[in-house]
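ingest -> fold -> write
write: protein_1
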Amino acid sequence: MWTLILFICSIPVSGALWAEKNAMGILGRAITISCHYEARRYQPSMKYWCHGWTRQCKVIATTNWPNGRISINNKTQGIFLVTITNLQWGDAGWYSCGIETPGLDPMFNVKLNISDEAVSVPGLQYLSQTNVSCSGGSVTVSCESAQGSLPIHYTWSEKMPSQDSKISYTNKLDLHCQSFTQRHHQYYCTASNTQGTKSSEIVHVSVNKVREKNCSYRIQTNSIITLPGM
């Protein structure tokens, strides 16, 4: 007596489709997964992203159907890109790149892992010209951590002799001549998430003239010296 055992699995059609077997995403950020395929055979075919690792997986996005945080871009021959934004813990698990064909769809399994990452030291950037009219404009400095799980919370503080004073709970600092009360001011930004807190460089402000309609000041960090505000 013979017993026939049939195994059904998502082994890719020989070399037709492949990707990184393990993808690592950061909580709150976006990830793009590259699915490679034989362009001459499958360029016009519909590509899809499937939740699960068997052929009974659930299709959750296609090249013609973005789905909420998930989209597929197939503008490059031989590669379609699956992008998932605002990654959540529940997004972790097994997925499959797939290509719709008249016969057996080429598929490739990808395991998506999600991790929590500490913030990096926030970088500073000037969002406005530093040579501005003190009576009619301001200098805006932004701070941002390039790495770290989202959400990231930002705070601007001014260094004081006794205790530093928090002056803004956003990632932007607006400097106005009218707000300066002394010759020298020092500001810094902190970025924090569930994994910790990092501080930026110090922004040094030297005020040359303090009259409202005729004042000037100089902004300097450890790596940047700006033109004076007039």
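write: protein_2
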Amino acid sequence: MVKIAIAGGSGGVGQEIVDILVATKKHEILLLSRKDAPAESASQATTWIKTDYSNVDELAQILQGVHTVLSFVTEQEDPTSPVQKKLIDASVKAGVKRFAPSEWVSSGLAHMSWYGFKETTRQYLKDLNKDKKVLEYTLFQPGYFLNYLTRPYPSTKHIPLTDLPWDFNNRRWLAVDEGQNSTLTLTTVADLANVVAQAIEFEGEWPVVGGIKGNDITMGELLALAENVRGGKPFAVEHVKAQDLEAGTWKTSWTPVIEHASIPPEQRAGLARFFTSSILLAVNANQLLVSDSWNQLLPDYKFTVIDEFLIEAWKGKP
């Protein structure tokens, strides 16, 4: 049993992982948040602590006795990542053994400017350990969530599903010309949460690059699987050129709208083209492909197979 602090754990990914950790009944869990504790949060398994993350000394006091810090803080509005830097400094001051920064997506960040704070945090941790090991850390990277491909049918408890350029429900697809061999990693939220729970108990040293590889698949293979899963009917595929995506001159008959809590509803339509082109370019550049570091360290864990997952998710759907 160890004491774990979850920073920003009220978000979807954080809640998924908290649920798994609570279910193990092995750990003492602190939930750090800028918000007041919700009425339904009363639980003997977790302790809610309100903080604005502005004071390193205050954070260090909160983190006294904590073994592992998991951060889910998002800082899209400030790529200098001030909150996570303070969390890291406070963790060192409090004697925390392990730290996981707010990663939870891909290894590559090119074309996805909203993840600039992740790059800043990576460098901050690297510089911290430049001369000697000050803080053990890992970058938990599952690639893209496979669950997104079941929209509009929920396949997670806490993570809202959003539109993507690969629309299983309406059998339509946006593809980059000559990008059928681009590869991405797709991992279920459940697999991510289970691996994190096992990583907490892992007795060896955490790898810096913590890839969690559920399934690697090319875009061409994914389209073929999508058509098979959806009854063998062909999808309406629209092709765009990478240079047109980069220039913002691409044209398609539809554009997915990213529905995320960090994006105000009134801004989503206006940002749709930006996010769509960014995601397509990132996949085309293999930026959503991750390592299998945790697969190697946890060889007995059985990951969800993409074919089985999608066939079951879409079975009987119109």
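write: annotation protein_2
DSSP finds ten helices and 14 strands in the chain.
The first strand starts at residue 3 and ends at 7.
pipeline exit 0
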